[in-house]
Amino acid sequence: MGNAIPSRIHCSILGPLQVRVDGHPTVIGAPKQRLLLAILLCHANAVIPSDQLIDALWGERPPRTARKNLQVYVSGLRKIVGDRLSFEGWGYRLYAGRDELDLLRFVELARSGRGAIRSGDLTVAAELLGEAVRMWQDPPLAEFSHVPLVAREIARSTDLFLSVYEDWVELEIELAHHVEALASLDVIAPRFPARERIAAARMTALYRCGRTSEALSHFENLRRHLAAEMGLDPSPVLRNLYQEILRGGGARRAEMTGAPDPARPQVIQTLANQLPRDIADFVGREAEVRRIMEDSAAVTLITGEPGIGKTALAVHVAHILAPAFPDGALVVALRRQGGAPRATVDLQREILEAVGLNVAGVRGDDVLAAIWRSWLANRKVLLVLDDSPDESSVRTLLPGTTASKVLVTSRSRLSGLESVARVTLGELSDAEGLDFLGRLIGRDRVECDLPAVKAIFERYGLSPLVLRLLGSRLAGLRHVPVGRLAARLVRSENVLDEFAAGETSLRARFEESYNQPSWAYRQAFLALGALHRPPFSHEELVAALDGTTSSPERVIESLLEANILSVPQHAMDDAEVVAHSMCYAMSPLAHRFAGELLGRRRRA
Prior knowledge:
Radius of gyration: 27 Å
Largest sheet: 5 strands, parallel
Keywords: DNA-binding, Transcription, Transcription regulation
CATH superfamily of the largest domain: Winged helix-like DNA-binding domain superfamily/Winged helix DNA-binding domain
InterPro entries: AAA_22, AfsR-DnrI-RedD_regulator, BTAD, OmpR/PhoB-type_DNA-bd, P-loop_NTPase, Sig_transdc_resp-reg_C-effctor, TPR-like_helical_dom_sf, WH-like_DNA-bd_sf
Protein name: OmpR/PhoB-type domain-containing protein
CATH class of the largest domain: Mainly Alpha
Shape: globular
GO molecular function: ATP hydrolysis activity; DNA binding
Family: Belongs to the AfsR/DnrI/RedD regulatory family.
CATH architecture of the largest domain: Orthogonal Bundle
């Protein structure tokens, strides 16, 4: 029986960690329990794998009782937050609404304020953004800044705050609240000397308060700082502002910062629509498409095993969404052909240069990342980040604001990626598989050999790639009945080679995904190849994985994280789930490939 949800709860992480239940402060004294809560709140509404939590709480050498201790800490937190804290089979999720966590309220105010800017209601925009700015208590979660899992979120939240602060302070100046804006800028500008929008706002506020010499002096200080720390000159926008102040001309907001001026149209460089063609025979996924379309999240993560249709779904949805993003739509491949990850700085540089920005002389990944976020800040761009190798590659490319939309595909669940909507793809249903195959080879042909078709589904699964390869072969062999091909597949000693059409091969996809010598899951994957056909019981897996890189339970969790295994029967929503009630599924053909790899190793 779960813990009842408290009637009211409010958590703060935009400063010291604070929790209030029913209006009363709650003391969480145990340091590790406080850290656990901070991590879960930083990643509110996302699943954090148990392994990551254990690493964050105990470092590289956790005690033998770490997993049990984690459950004890979770149990203690549930007495405070109730059923908002749940176990998801491989990790924990803390649900929170925008009125229950200050960070979510901050994001909502920022979104509403920027919407008011776009509609031209600057007074309302300034009020909303000002309320968001006043929520910030720097530094957030300072007591946990030494923990990498928290430090990354502190950095991301700080970037978000600064972009909101810049919007707000520019509006205050636009509305002639120069003195009020300057009082805040005098505090913020020295702490973030490289933020050029803040520097421009302070120069303008000083000038409009009659303090011209101080405005010019601020520019000189910034110029020296950029040259010494980054080897850069101030941007053309700042240099133009400096010249305007020298000439005594009151620079307007749009001229000094490059931010949009509602009173006149703005010329911006766009990516245009660069999406690849949509798949004409796209079948199924109605629930997933509807969820992505209706979810207000700025980032949607689509995950699943190789060949399950992640990219096809992302591109299909992107074509539907593209008209709402006038500044362009683009698919960015995060891996090279063959599977090697691409450096995100190269991708940023490539896209920025494509829109006409000269970044050839920019030194330092952080500087380039700042330029990337600045370029995206006031634009509505739709990005598809395809085949992400890890969480850091996604974080580096995400916009700092919510005007743009990002669809991410990955073979891994990327469970540590925060504040994203998650869509996990499974196989197609029988009905969808019949529809898909019918479009490829003809419905009459499918119906004539329906038992053979269903036998293929049962034996080899219903992943879109498997069905497309099978259908493409059958389409070119119109004289061959489906039943005859099904019998041939059963007799084949190298059945993976049968799933190939043109230049596309299932074996090649598996080689790319599962046969990298440095692949972290290789030893466990080979152990799965020794087992009988999936699904596997929990006991089978524990026995097979005993003696691999870690404890069997942790290896199972890592295989779930990598989408090599899945859970066909959802476990109870509780950490104390009974182990023998669980079983695990795996792609039949991926299992066959694991068996082949194991056989090669034994023969070597």
